[in-house]
Amino acid sequence: MINLYWNSNSIRNLAAATGEQARPYPATIEYIMDKASLEFNKKPEKMDFRAYSISWNITKRCNLNCAHCYLDADFRGGFRTDELSTEECFRVMDQIAEVNPNPFLILTGGEPLLRPDIYDLVRYAADRKFMVVLGTNGTLINKANADKLKAAGAHGVGISIDSMDAEKHNRFRGVSRAWENSTKAFEILNEAGLDFLVQMSVADWNYKEIPDVVAFAEKMGAVAFNLYFLVCTGRGQGNTDISNAAYEEALKTLYRLQMEYKGRLMINSKCAPQYKRVVYENDPDSVYTRTYSGGCPAATHYSRISPEGNLTPCPFIQESVGNLKAASFKDLWFNAPLMRELRDRKNLQGKCGTCEFSAMCSGCRARAFAERGSYMAEDPSCDYQPGKYGGKEITLKIEDTLGLEVEHNLPWTPEALSRLERIPSFARGMVVKGVEKFAEERGHAFVDEALMKLSREEMISKRGAMFPFLKKFINSEAGSGGSQ
């Protein structure tokens, strides 16, 4: 029996979606549903491994001299001739779109604002419907360039704050007044209406400050906080990583803060996939276990492009699988031997190979190589001993798995599809699974905007929101054109 949710407006919406005029009920439903099954169930090319996130170091030039820089950026260097040109960058974006038409693209450096064509690059990517964010140190942000970034289509900006002690931050970043200039950027970005997140690189001298930096991030109006765990590569090769005990303490602190700020600030770890194990141990049903199937996304859903055009599996893996001046992104992504090697997680060695959390963790592959010399070695930062939970593999629920292909089993109205497109592509397949499960459990025969909102509201009430900043994309009454 058709649920009462099928009101006259819903019928008109579905009729519009299939290009038909609404007929008298119930003939409308029968006819339109037949046609909708053809229109809405068209499936794109399915890929086992799709590039959902790409971090692109568009320049080595930088105005800071950070001690831990994986790129070993060129401090106050001049213009370089070996970096990809504007037109070459456009061509690479076109090639990326062949693998994923709507990737999450992080334009970073060095300092990306030192590249004169940065607004052209943002605009070109945004026009292609990439979700573009800028990874900057924030010291060069001013009203003029913030407005330009917004107008070009940037979705947001990431700025690093490593301590609430300006002197400590400045020493770490290698330049005086770096903290003061970076923190000024937050007010400017708020006035420009450009979302920002705060990033912190954890070290032995600052991991006790995590709660203070998180509190500061929320106070400044950030939509997210990312805690980066150091991988000793690039200029950071001589740095001393924090102890394994400090790692575990930092991850437990992060989980506590995630609960404290639930629904207000998205909090996550980077380069520490074992965080999902910490979450699971606190709450096996937590929404915060959500991650890519296989855990560490290097080469499975994530990659990095260097200023010269070299493609690597992630920013902290220095080995190039090929140069995009000579080969296509699609060819290297699918066929490069190192990319294929990293995708075969059955070959994980040591504890990572026997761990019941490998489906949601698998250890940091970059750290394994940096400290063990093998991409498949166990992650040396983790002291967890497999077997605590009986040795049976712990897998992600389908509705908690990022990186799923978008497969519709119900028809969606154009308005619902428009809202779906505003969600980062790495989460869309997961959202579709969750919304359609919600619809089917309640007898709804198709998905529209109202149902998406109801589904989200119930998920938040029961489990909390992993992506609080996406409320404006899903619940917004604004149209879908342009950047939000």
Protein model, in words:
- It is a single chain.
- By secondary structure, this protein is of the alpha/beta class.
- Helix content is 39%, strand content 12%.
- It has helices at 8-17, 27-39, 86-99, 118-127, 143-152, 166-173, 178-192, 210-220, 244-260, 275-282, 329-335, 337-343, 350-354, 365-372, 414-421, 425-441, 449-463, 471-475; strands at 53-57, 61-62, 74-75, 104-108, 131-136, 156-160, 195-202, 224-229, 266-270, 291-292, 302-305, 310-312, 322-323, 401-402.
- The strands form three sheets. The protein has a ten-stranded mixed β-sheet.
- Strand 8 (224-229), helix 9 and strand 9 form a beta-alpha-beta unit.
- Helix 1 (8-17) runs parallel beside helix 2, helix 5 (143-152) packs across helix 7 (178-192) and helix 16 crosses helix 17 (449-463).
- The chain starts with 7 loop residues before the first helix and ends in a 9-residue tail after the last helix.
- Residues 1-42 and 468-484 have low confidence and may be disordered.
